[in-house]
Design goal:
It contains 11 helices and 15 strands. By secondary structure, it is an alpha/beta fold.
C-alpha cells in the first residue's frame, strides 16, 4: 500500500524528484569533480535561484552544509567567544541550548508554548553575544511571528541566529530580523535529507572576521572562502545540490507559497475545531502554519495513529514532552491538497 505521509521530516517529496534523480544520473554531474566548472556553475545557479525564489537579500550569503544540526555547530564555533542566549519553548530549541553548553557558556530563556516570546532585563541580553531562536518549533507546532522577530531585532544589539528548519521555503521569512538563518531540505523544500542551508548577513560575516575562528573544516570563514569561489571545503552532496537547484526552478515564489500554506493551515485548524479535535497550541497567534500538532488522551492518540496507518495515512508521532499525547501533521508545500482532503475525510470519520 502506498502511504500518504504527513510526517514532519523527512517528509513527502515533490513528485518531480524521481525524474530529477534520473536526469542527474544521465547528465554525468554526479561523477564530476567538485572543483570542476560544471559543479561550480551548478552551485552558483542553485544559490542564485534560492536568492530569487525565497526573496533573500542580495547581500546575505548562502552556504550549503550537511544538516541543520551542523549549522548549529558552525554558528556556535565561529560567532561566539564567551556566551550565547537561547530562547526556546520546545525540544529542538532546548537541544541547541544543550549543545551550546558543551562549547561555551550558554544561557537559557524558556517560555510557554502558548505564550509569545518576550524578554526581561534578567535574560542576559547585555551579556550574550548571540541570541539563538527557533522560528518554527517542530516538536510542538509553534512559530515566532514576523512582528515579534522584528521587535526582538530592535531590542537585541548582538547577532541573532534563527533555526527555520521546518518553515524555510514554506512561509515568507523576515530575513532582516535575523543575521543567520538555518534549515534542512527534508521539510518544506520537499527533498531527501542530507543537505543543510545556512544564510548569513553582512553583520554576521563581520563578526566572524573579528573572531577569526579557523580551527575546523566547517569554520564559517573557511566555508565562506570556498563558497565565494563556488566551491565547498568538503566533498559535497552533489545529488542533493542538483535536486535543490532543479526544485527551486519549478516552485512558485515564496509569496505565492506562503499564501497557499497559510490559507491551508487556517482552514485545517478550523476543521479541527469543527470536528472536536484539539490543537496542542491554543493561542492562535503563535501556532505554526507548517507543523500542526493535535493533542488527546494517550490511548486515543495511539489508536488513531494505528487506524490512520491502516487507512494508508502516516501521521507524525509526538515529540519530546508531547511524545505520547500528540500527533503532528506536516503542512509542507510538496503535500498536495488531495492528500489533505483524504486526511480530513479520515479524521471526520473517527472524531476523538
Amino acid at each position: 500500500m502506498n502511504m500518504t505521509t504527513f510526517y514532519p521530516g523527512p517528509s513527502q517529496l515533490y513528485p518531480q524528484v524521481e525524474g530529477y534523480w534520473l536526469d542527474a544520473f544521465h547528465s554525468g554531474i554526479l561523477s564530476m569533480n567538485h572543483r570542476s566548472p560544471a559543479f561550480m556553475d551548478m552551485l552558483a545557479q542553485t544559490i542564485g535561484t534560492m536568492h530569487h525564489k525565497l526573496d533573500i537579500p542580495a547581500d546575505y550569503e548562502i552556504y550549503l552544509t550537511s544538516s541543520a544540526t551542523e549549522c548549529w555547530e558552525i554558528i556556535l564555533q565561529s560567532l561566539v567567544q564567551k556566551s550565547s542566549l537561547h530562547a526556546f519553548n520546545g525540544a529542538f530549541g532546548q537541544k541547541w541550548f544543550e549543545y551550546a553548553g558543551r562549547l561555551h557558556r550558554a544561557f537559557s530563556h524558556e517560555f510557554d508554548p502558548d505564550e509569545d516570546l518576550g524578554f526581561k532585563q534578567s535574560t542576559h541580553f547585555e551579556e550574550a553575544e548571540i541570541l539563538c531562536l527557533t522560528h518554527n518549533e517542530t516538536s510542538n507546532g509553534t512559530a515566532i511571528s514576523a512582528v515579534t522577530l522584528k521587535k526582538i531585532r530592535q531590542q537585541f544589539s548582538g547577532i541573532i541566529a534563527v533555526d527555520a528548519t521546518s518553515s524555510m521555503a514554506g512561509v515568507k521569512l523576515p530575513w532582516l530580523a535575523g543575521d543567520v538563518w538555518l534549515a534542512s531540505v527534508q521539510k518544506c523544500f520537499g527533498l531527501p535529507p542530507g543537505l543543510g542551508v545556512l544564510i548569513v548577513s553582512p553583520q554576521a560575516i563581520t563578526r566572524a572576521e573579528e573572531i577569526g575562528e579557523r580551527n575546523h573544516y566547517n569554520s564559517l570563514l573557511f566555508i565562506r572562502e570556498n563558497f565565494l569561489k563556488n566551491q565547498t571545503p568538503y566533498t559535497p552532496n552533489i545529488p542533493g545540490i542538483y535536486l535543490l537547484g532543479r526544485m527551486l526552478v519549478q516552485i512558485p515564489s515564496i509569496e505565492a507559497v506562503d499564501e497557499v500554506i497559510t490559507a491551508r493551515a487556517d482552514h485545517f485548524y478550523q476543521f479541527l475545531s469543527e470536528n472536536s479535535y484539539q490543537p496542542l497550541i491554543g493561542n492562535q497567534a503563535v501556532r505554526s502554519s507548517t507543523v500542526i500538532t493535535v493533542t488527546a488522551d494517550e490511548n486515543l492518540i495511539k489508536n488513531l495513529k494505528e487506524s490512520a496507518k491502516k487507512a494508508g495515512i502516516l501521521l507524525g508521532n509526538g515529540y519530546g514532552p508531547w511524545k505520547n499525547t500528540t500527533f503532528r501533521i506536516a503542512n509542507f508545500p510538496a503535500i498536495p491538497d488531495t492528500d489533505f482532503a483524504q486526511l480530513r475525510n479520515f479524521l471526520k470519520s473517527l472524531r476523538l
